[in-house]
Amino acid sequence: MADAKVIPFDEDRPRGGTPRSGTPRAAARRRATPPRPVTPLPGQSGASGEPGADGPSEGPGESVAAGSSGHPGAPEVSGAPESYGAAGRGVGDGWERRVASGLAFLRRRITGEYEVDEFGFDEELTDQVLMSLLRPLYEKYFRVEVRGVENIPAEGGALVVANHSGTVPLDGLMMQVAVHDHHPAGRHLRLLAADLVFMLPVVSELARKAGHTLACAEDAERLLQRGEVVGVMPEGFKGIGKPFSERYKLQRFGRGGFVSTALRAGVPIVPCSIVGAEEIYPMVGNSRTLARLLGFPYFPITPTFPWLGPLGALPLPTKWTIQFGEPIPTDGYAPEAAEDPMLMFNLTDQVREQIQHTLYKLLVRRRSVFF
Predict the structure, then answer these.
(1) Which residues, listed in sequence order, are joined to residue 191 by a DSSP beta bridge?
(2) Homologous superfamily in CATH for domain 144-280+315-365
(3) Which residues does residue 157 pair with via DSSP β-bridges, in sequence order?
(4) What percent of the chain has pLDDT over 90?
(5) Residues 240, 233: Cα–Cα separation, whole Å
(6) 49 with 61: CB under 8 angstroms?
(7) What's the CA gap between 19 and 33, in Å, rounded?
(8) Contacts of 266 by beta carbon, 8 Å cutoff, 6+ apart
(9) Mean per-residue pLDDT for 172-194?
(10) For the segment 75-133, what is each residue's pLDDT rounded down to a tens digit?
């Protein structure tokens, strides 16, 4: 073992190598021994590339392309490493681009080189992070089916009005993913949220980043006039916190404030019906005492919560359908129409009836709550 040597990968080796072939003496003997001439076989043209062969000698690149042994008909192997390397480089480039994009994203977040609008909406964070976190829940868990998303205009403002349910407001988030991922123009849905959302420590910051804003007429009108798609759920806590026995029965739509906002901005109203959210947390009771102590509008009691603790907070994997209906235009009304209480009442009732009717049709077509 004392005289063992490391043989470099490019060191010439004899075909019938011996255990001592790597010693300096053997290497010197190989260098001193002249190579034996190779006599070509009859009909073998220029196989060795030596002068005096039967045919014209080939260049170095051509002799390699003939095969690993230099004989005609030998399998072509010279292209295999190159093609393998090209494929490997393609895969590597894909991962390199992803890593580079991720590092660039982190650099922008750390240095603050990103943009948010006046409401706090962070489009880059929403597209690359928040939507990516919600998408598995949307596609794999609730398996949401979207219909009529093309009824939302490709440009300009629009007010999407939807039913609200499910004890926890996951329906608004799923509607946001539906518009973002399935609309032909890839539009963002700016949801109007209740005051409670912006009072919670972490939720408030994430809601602002995702484009949510306070459910007030001023903010909604500013967004619509900027050409944004705004989403509102007029039932509010009355819809999301209703008992399971009243599922898919729309509650009162308030005093029609969303209609007045749409009339002032002159944007269409797009009714939206959501089926599947009512069953994720079947609310069989409401502890009003705990709700008052915690400052919540209600404290839900379901078959699994609070009996199973954190496990009981896991939503049931129901099958969802989100359908966007035909838009109701408002640009044909005079500017003073927003102050007409009868017109607001009629339009509010029209939107509510269209959503309720669509809910009934979707429920009749539904085969199962979970499939």
Answers:
(1) 231
(2) Glycerol-3-phosphate (1)-acyltransferase (3.40.1130.10)
(3) none
(4) 64
(5) 10
(6) no
(7) 19
(8) 330, 331
(9) 97
(10) 443 444 443 344 444 545 778 888 888 888 888 888 888 899 999 999 999 999 999 99
Instruction: Spell out the domain ranges in the chain.
Output: 144-280+315-365
Please give the residue that has the higher pLDDT: either 170 or 97: 170
Q: At what angle do helices 257-265 and 341-365 cross, to 10 degrees?
A: 110
- Kindly state the tokens that stand for 39: 């006599």
Tokens for 367? 């085969």
CA atoms of 207 and 186, how far apart (whole Å): 20
Please give the DSSP secondary-structure letter assigned to residue 338: G
Q: Does 95 or 361 have the greater pLDDT score?
A: 361
Rounded CA-CA distance 221/224 in Å is 5
Measure the CA–CA gap between 262 and 106, rounded to whole angstroms.
Answer: 39
- Cα(27)–Cα(31) distance, integer angstroms: 6
CA 165/CA 248 separation, integer angstroms: 8
Stretch 208-217: mean pLDDT: 94
Check if the beta carbon of residue 284 is closer than 8 Å to that of residue 301: yes
Write down the residue that tokens 């709700």 correspond to. 291
Nearest to 225 by CA among 326, 346, 331: 331
